[in-house]
């Protein structure tokens, strides 16, 4: 049972994010200015801001370290910074590039991503419109090549069966395409755990299938949820 202090679950059960691992980097030149874009997977504001701090140290002689990030399955945390560029010409275009990125036809669900664009000024003024395009294109171009994953919330459900019946039922469940989570053992039963898409239809379908497999002798017992990464085909 969830504790009263636990945060509420997100409205969405799946979204797209940057693959976990090293930061992704890409550089483009526009009228002699260098725009170095760095993307990082981040699941909280401290992690997102740490990217900016680290790049300030690494590129300490750069004129600007503009940033934007969007966090959470529901994308409810959104921040941006122009870092000395004219107001509205850097951070907001970067944020919009994250928010408007299509991860599938008609789908804009990218989140848990921190983006920083480091700019070395090349001596030619770009103007407000030129800066907006440069910062937006820098992030968009990096996202075109960065490794993305789909984050899926799975509902873990327990099935308690006698020890002697557990092996066969597990094989039947795997054969039916279900993802099995960690198995547990109690004095009189084996606890099989299924990882199901966190939706009422999926739970209802699994309960019906389980009842047919066990002649109604076993039941699904929903437990907690967990998020997993699934690579995207691009």
Please sum up the structure shown.
The protein is α+β, with helices and mostly antiparallel strands and 234 residues long. Helices cover 29% and strands 34% of the residues. It has helices spanning 45-58, 91-99, 127-145, 163-175, 200-213; strands at residues 14-18, 24-30, 33-41, 64-71, 77-81, 113-120, 148-161, 179-180, 184-185, 190-197, 221-231.
Output mean pLDDT: 93
The tally of strands reads 11
Task: Return the string of H and E elements.
Answer: EEEHEEHEHEHEEEHE
Structural class: alpha+beta
Radius of gyration: 23 Å
Please count the helical segments.
5
Largest sheet geometry: 6 strands, antiparallel
The end-to-end distance, rounded to whole angstroms, is: 39 Å
| Percent of sequence in beta strands | 25-35%
Helix content: 25-40%
Parts with pLDDT < 50 across at least 5 consecutive residues: 1-6
- The coarse overall form would be elongated
Main traits of this protein?
about 230 residues, alpha+beta, six-stranded antiparallel sheet, five-stranded antiparallel sheet, about 30% helix, disordered N terminus
Folded structure, characterized:
With 234 residues, the protein is an alpha+beta fold. 29% of the residues lie in helices and 34% in strands. It has helices at 45-58, 91-99, 127-145, 163-175, 200-213; strands spanning 14-18, 24-30, 33-41, 64-71, 77-81, 113-120, 148-161, 179-180, 184-185, 190-197, 221-231. Strands 1, 7, 8, 9, 10 and 11 form a six-stranded antiparallel beta sheet that branches. The protein has a five-stranded antiparallel beta sheet with strand order 2-3-6-4-5, sandwiched between helices. Helix 2 (91-99) runs parallel beside helix 3. The longest helix is centred in the middle third of the chain and has 19 residues, at 127-145. The relative contact order is 0.17. Mean pLDDT is 93; it is low at 1-6.
């Amino acid at each position: 049972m969830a504790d009263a202090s636990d945060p509420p679950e997100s409205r969405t059960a799946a979204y797209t994010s940057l693959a976990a691992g090293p930061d992704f980097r890409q550089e483009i030149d526009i009228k002699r200015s260098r725009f170095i874009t760095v993307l990082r997977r981040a699941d909280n504001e401290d992690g997102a801001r740490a990217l900016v701090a680290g790049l300030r140290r690494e590129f300490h002689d750069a004129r600007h370290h503009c940033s934007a990030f969007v966090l959470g399955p529901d994308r409810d945390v959104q921040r941006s910074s122009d870092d000395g560029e004219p107001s509205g010409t850097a951070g907001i275009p970067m944020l919009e590039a994250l928010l408007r990125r299509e991860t599938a036809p008609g789908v804009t669900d990218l989140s848990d991503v921190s983006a920083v664009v480091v700019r070395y000024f090349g001596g030619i003024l770009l103007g407000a419109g030129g800066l907006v395009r440069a910062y937006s294109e820098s992030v968009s171009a990096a996202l075109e090549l960065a490794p993305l994953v789909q984050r899926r919330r799975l509902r873990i459900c327990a099935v308690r069966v006698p020890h002697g019946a557990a092996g066969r039922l597990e094989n039947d469940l795997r054969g039916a395409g279900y993802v099995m989570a960690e198995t547990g053992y109690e004095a009189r039963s084996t606890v099989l755990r299924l990882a199901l898409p966190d939706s009422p239809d999926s739970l209802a379908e699994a309960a019906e299938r389980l009842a047919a497999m066990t002649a109604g002798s076993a039941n699904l017992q929903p437990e907690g949820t967990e998020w997993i990464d699934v690579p995207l085909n691009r």
